[in-house]
């Protein structure tokens, strides 16, 4: 399966949420896409509800099925509440940290910055979007990339205090992961327990 590169509004309408950020079309058409989207009222099964929640999490964080299952299995072996640990692992991905630090306007843009070698972790360039950032590590923009318009525009006026698990240092144009976030601090509208229930059946 290739990474989804199709219309993002179509996916947002499927879930009824702006999972990729502000969406003007979704605001006008907050119902599923398709010819009968506005009239469709079919009852969804328990399995369907659980599957939908997993798909929403995958699209939100830009993760493929194999990566997602691997993270779930890792979460299952880790001490703590499975669903919460899964979200913590997703939040610790390098592309997500770059997005949360305000270096990019979207997770997709953050992924591109990482893949194109514009991001450093503890001073060394890392071009793996799924790289798991550990507490204490510092994420910065590569020196020769600090003048990139996409980065400067994203950082302009960004509220760096909105995520308590991250610390921004303006002098180095970078931030540090202080600790993994608590569930109540993660703003994503994901019912992680449904994902745990889905995988427990397989």
Description:
It is built from nine helices and five strands; from the N terminus they run H-H-H-H-H-H-H-E-E-E-H-E-E-H. It has 202 residues and is of the alpha+beta class. It folds into two domains: 8-89 and 188-201, Ribosomal Protein S4 Delta 41, Chain A, domain 1; 93-179, RNA-binding S4 domain (Structural Genomics Hypothetical 15.5 Kd Protein In mrcA-pckA Intergenic Region, Chain A). It has a five-stranded antiparallel β-sheet, with helices on one face. Helix 3 packs across helix 9 (192-201) and helix 5 packs across helix 9 (192-201). Strand 1 (119-121) and strand 2 (124-125) form a beta hairpin.
Quick tags:
globular; alpha+beta; 2 domains; 202 residues; Structural Genomics Hypothetical 15.5 Kd Protein In mrcA-pckA Intergenic Region, Chain A
Structural class: alpha+beta
Q: Report on the biggest sheet.
A: 5 strands, antiparallel
Which overall shape is indicated by the principal axes computed on the Cα atoms? globular
Helix content: 40-55%
CATH architecture of the largest domain: Orthogonal Bundle
Strand order of the largest sheet: 2-1-3-5-4
Poorly predicted residue ranges = none
Summarize the structure.
This protein is of the alpha+beta class and 202 residues long. 42% of the residues lie in helices and 8% in strands.
What topology does this entry show?
Blueprint: H1 8-15, H2 24-28, H3 46-61, H4 65-76, H5 82-91, H6 94-100, H7 107-115, E1 119-121, E2 124-125, E3 138-141, H8 149-155, E4 166-169, E5 174-177, H9 192-201
Antiparallel strand pairs: 1-2, 1-3, 3-5, 4-5
Helix pairs in contact: 3-9, 4-5, 5-9, 6-7
